[in-house]
């Protein structure tokens, strides 16, 4: 099979623990693009939290795309055009805020090139800021201060109680929003039907690429749909066991150039 596209989650997949692309992984992806393979960066991050990595890989010059907000916004790196976007229902933000506060959690969203959060110094909020290299502003009246509409909200907290909140919100918000964890301490709250596979399907239809011609690599629960969707679904060695069970192939970890290994094995050796 000649693969025409590789879709990459970022955190825990493309980047190492320092949120950097290693030289070996970059070299492999640049070589793949020289062969005409499109690179797509698919992440729960906002667009501006992805663009620096897209620039590093020269996606604008090589027909690449950004799938931000877990697929809620698709951007053509070549011209900056947004080819798909779906926002969260404004009425759900206060409900998500109150659910988070009641559970002892914090909530955040993205405003311009910054993060708006209920508590600036929360360790999980600070981790999200580190991942995206974005400043944080604390909003004392989160539902009243947020500039609407927003692409998604992120509820953050310790894994066990956050899982309990996730199960509760899945029931109460069914049909109005989708909630799922991208990490043990991150609960994604997005418009209904938004996930990486659905957005990927929209993108490849417009490009005339079949799902069989795609490799998708990921390590998290928000990657599971695209791992199942792609012709070759790849889980990282650092992914949870049930994510690995979904995959067609398990590569090395993100600390061992797992993405470079996939590119070398399935694209560059053709």
Order of helices and strands: EHEHEEEHEEHEHEHEEHEHEHEH
Q: Bin the strand percentage.
A: 15-25%
> Strand sequence of the main sheet, in spatial order?
5-4-3-2-1-12-13-14
Care to count the β-strands? Answer: 14
Largest sheet: 8 strands, mixed
Describe the protein's topology.
Layout: E1 5-8, H1 23-34, E2 38-42, H2 51-56, E3 65-68, E4 73-76, E5 82-85, H3 92-102, E6 106-111, E7 114-117, H4 123-132, E8 136-138, H5 142-145, E9 153-156, H6 159-172, E10 178-183, E11 186-190, H7 196-207, E12 214-218, H8 224-229, E13 232-235, H9 241-246, E14 249-250, H10 258-268
Parallel strand pairs: 1-2, 1-12, 2-3, 7-8, 12-13, 13-14
Antiparallel strand pairs: 3-4, 4-5, 6-7, 6-9, 9-11, 10-11
Task: Give a verbal description of the structure.
With 270 residues, this protein is an alpha/beta fold. The chain has two domains: 5-86 and 194-268, 3-Layer(aba) Sandwich (Rossmann fold); 92-190, Hypothetical Protein, Haloacid Dehalogenase-like Hydrolase, Chain: A, domain 2. 34% of the residues lie in helices and 22% in strands. It is built from ten helices and 14 strands. It has helices at residues 23-34, 51-56, 92-102, 123-132, 142-145, 159-172, 196-207, 224-229, 241-246, 258-268, and strands spanning 5-8, 38-42, 65-68, 73-76, 82-85, 106-111, 114-117, 136-138, 153-156, 178-183, 186-190, 214-218, 232-235, 249-250. Strands 5-4-3-2-1-12-13-14 form an eight-stranded mixed β-sheet. α1 (23-34) packs parallel to α10. The longest helix has 14 residues, at 159-172. The radius of gyration is 18 Å and the shape is globular.
């Amino acid at each position: 099979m000649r693969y025409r596209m590789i879709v990459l989650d970022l955190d825990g997949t493309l980047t190492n623990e320092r949120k950097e692309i290693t030289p070996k992984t970059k070299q492999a992806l640049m070589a793949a693009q020289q062969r005409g393979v499109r690179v797509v960066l698919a992440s729960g991050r906002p667009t501006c939290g992805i663009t620096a990595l897209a620039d590093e890989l020269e996606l604008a010059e090589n027909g690449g795309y950004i799938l931000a907000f877990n697929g809620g916004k698709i951007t053509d790196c070549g011209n900056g055009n947004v080819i798909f976007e779906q926002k969260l229902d404004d009425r759900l933000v206060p409900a998500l805020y109150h659910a988070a506060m009641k559970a002892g959690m914090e909530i955040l969203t993205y405003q311009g090139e910054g993060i708006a959060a209920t508590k600036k110094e929360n360790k999980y909020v600070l981790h999200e800021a580190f991942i995206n290299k974005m400043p944080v502003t604390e909003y004392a009246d989160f539902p009243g201060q947020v500039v609407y509409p927003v692409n998604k909200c992120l509820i953050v907290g310790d894994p066990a109680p956050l899982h309990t909140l996730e199960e509760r919100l899945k029931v109460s918000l069914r049909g109005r929003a989708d909630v799922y964890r991208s990490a043990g301490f991150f609960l994604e709250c997005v418009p209904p039907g938004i996930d990486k596979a659905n957005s990927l399907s929209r993108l490849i239809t417009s490009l005339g690429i079949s799902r069989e011609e795609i490799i998708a690599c990921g390590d998290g629960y928000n990657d599971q749909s695209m791992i199942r969707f792609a012709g070759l679904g790849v889980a990282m060695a650092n992914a949870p066991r049930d994510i690995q069970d979904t995959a067609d192939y398990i590569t090395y970890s993100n600390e061992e150039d797992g993405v470079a290994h996939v590119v070398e094995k399935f694209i560059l050796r053709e």
